[in-house]
Specification:
- Chains A, B: Its EC number is 1.2.1.59.
- 2 copies of one chain form a homodimer.
- The first copy, chain A, is built from 13 helices and 16 strands.
- Chain A folds into 2 domains: 166 residues, NAD(P)-binding Rossmann-like Domain (Rossmann fold, 3-Layer(aba) Sandwich); 158 residues, Dihydrodipicolinate Reductase, domain 2.
- Chain A is an alpha/beta fold.
- The longest helix of chain A is centred in the middle third of the chain and has 17 residues.
- Helix content of chain A is 34%, strand content 24%.
- Chain A starts with a strand and ends with a helix.
- In chain A, helix 1 crosses helix 12 and helix 12 crosses helix 13.
- In chain A, the strands form 2 sheets. Chain A has an 8-stranded parallel β-sheet with strand order 4-3-2-1-5-6-8-7, with helices on both faces. In chain A, strands 9, 10, 11, 12, 13, 14, 15 and 16 form an 8-stranded mixed β-sheet that branches.
- The interface between A and B is large, with 43 and 43 residues.
Chain lengths: 335, 335
């Protein structure tokens, strides 16, 4: 069987990780990645054997910078069956025209609106909805993290109401331009935040209200969740259910913070120290007055990576069953 | 009328602020403060004209360090009608024996347990309970901030359930020994946190569940609140009620973070730039599906200061009416 040809448009935090995860799979391969600047990431991409492409007006700059580009982004798209668009949010419409013209499928990330793709994706919750589709949006890291816990809890116990406070990292670790370095920033100030509706773009019937703040940290997001469920259940039943999910990792063993979770990712030998799973503190899973509470850490740079791989598999109909795709992705990545 | 004589045992973050606030009042005065080390705070205290006392075994060190101490802590207590104990948490029992022996009234801070004093105090919620008492505990900064909003909302609309995520600063700005500098620390991991029960030590019938984390910031705590009320009401009605409370300040005008709130405190000319009031983002006050949400910033170094002054007034029966004490305190401090 020939492998599905995947191009990565935008080789930043998410793009470079998706490229490596795709390359690990048996049924897909990277045919090219795009960069706009000849920086260290472009050189590492070449070292890894990826064909590097660039916007037409940046080719000269790439050459000057010593990066041997294989052609334009349009050239790259021609070689692909599907493009994973990891460009910064806001270029959606422009790029959609490009992909449509080339007759290539495309995946966007959570920075774009649901309407652009018409299908917002989480592998656990709605894999089948993406089967054969031309355009899919893999929801953001926070929404992915929420869907991964909300979907199984709703299936098992029925969800009446989710209330969540999202504590977001200020910037990714390599981003030296953003703050805050010493403040708490309600974001948005006007409540509720967009994260609740974004979960509903994947699981429409969920009743969820979210609030969010931005913090002086770069390592992970943290969610403080409160969930009312239809069926009464114990903390042990919830813990057993969540622990059985392949993209949820229970943490304990002296881990007291997001910093130690990321240290664990490095100690485990994960590529870039990534922690692809929701990290739930087992000890935090509590039923108080009939309502569920727990804390989970979400690694903003990497939790959507396996979801992108599954989205490719669904859209290219490499696998009709979501659970089997998840199993393949996990096995290849080592989750 | 002779002024009530107040001694401050422990002249750190809270103690030095209580001293200055007491000194501003017409009906009370500082007769001494205690220090254990001859550091800059001791020198500033002398400059302000406070008598500085020290534990007997530290007097020599004070002298060597150039601080002219007036005597031991036992000596200081002899001169006072009431002691405000701002020593680090955990010395409660020991100090209580000292105060009892000297026949002096005492106030502890939120670091001590409710049982030590038998009365946990918030000026709005239970001033009358402290009238004439020998021992009172002024609840912590976070609990004070919660009581200030919960009490009036409960009086006006009836509170069914409070759910709150407390995002706590890592350390005070002058504390260079604590972290985290880049992490989110669920604290406690085991839920719910003690803050809910602490609110109940002041307003026993409130149904409240809290979760808390510690963050990489020094400036303020931030609370993300969700409140279900008995009576239906609009966001405007809630905003009007909260805006009418003298120790709640509504913020807007381009303030997007805790850092800008503290900048405002400095620009207003507040002593030490303190922000004694709960700072609620007006725009955040929202009713969503019948439930109230809002964000408030709590200045951990200073919000309990006016409460300590009111506690003195209640215990010494300088004023039988809580609202009138609050008015006197606020006027003298410039709230």
């Amino acid at each position: 069987m020939s492998k599905v040809k995947v191009a990565i448009n935008g080789y930043g935090t998410i793009g470079k990780r998706v490229a490596d995860a795709v390359q690990m799979q048996k049924d897909m391969e990277i045919v090219g990645i795009s960069k706009t600047k000849p920086n260290f990431e472009a050189f590492v991409a070449l070292d890894k054997g990826y064909q590097v492409y660039a916007p037409a007006d940046k080719l000269k700059g790439m050459e000057t910078g010593g990066v041997d580009a294989s052609g334009t982004i349009e050239d790259m798209i021609q070689t692909a069956d599907i493009v994973v668009d990891c460009t910064p949010g806001g270029f959606g419409d422009e790029n959609k025209a490009l992909y449509t013209k080339a007759g290539v499928k495309a995946i966007w990330q959570g920075g774009e609106e649901h309407e652009l793709a018409g299908c917002s994706f989480n592998a656990d919750a709605n894999y089948e909805e993406a089967l054969g589709r031309d355009f899919v949006r893999v929801v953001s890291c926070n929404t992915t993290g929420l869907c991964r816990v909300i979907y199984p809890l709703d299936q098992e116990f029925g969800i009446k109401k989710v209330r969540v406070t999202l504590m977001r990292r200020a910037a990714d670790p390599n981003d030296v331009k953003k703050g805050p370095i010493n403040a708490i920033v309600p974001s948005p100030i006007k409540l509720p935040s967009h994260h609740g509706p974004d979960v509903k773009s994947v699981i429409p019937h969920i009743n969820i209200t979210s609030t969010a703040v931005v913090l002086s940290t770069t390592l992970m997001h943290l969610h403080s969740l409160n969930i009312e469920m239809d069926k009464q259940c114990t903390a042990e039943e919830v813990a057993d259910l969540l622990a059985a999910q392949s993209r949820i990792r229970f943490i304990g063993q002296g881990i007291t913070s997001t910093a130690e979770i990321m240290e664990l990712g490095k100690d485990l030998g994960r590529p870039r120290g990534d922690m692809w799973e929701n990290c739930i503190w087992e000890q935090s899973v509590t039923i108080d007055e009939g309502e569920l509470y727990f804390f989970q850490g979400i690694h903003q740079e990497s939790d959507v990576i396996p979801e992108n791989v599954d989205a490719i598999r669904a859209m290219m109909e490499l696998e009709s069953n979501g659970a089997r795709s998840i199993e393949k992705t996990n096995k290849a990545m080592g989750i």
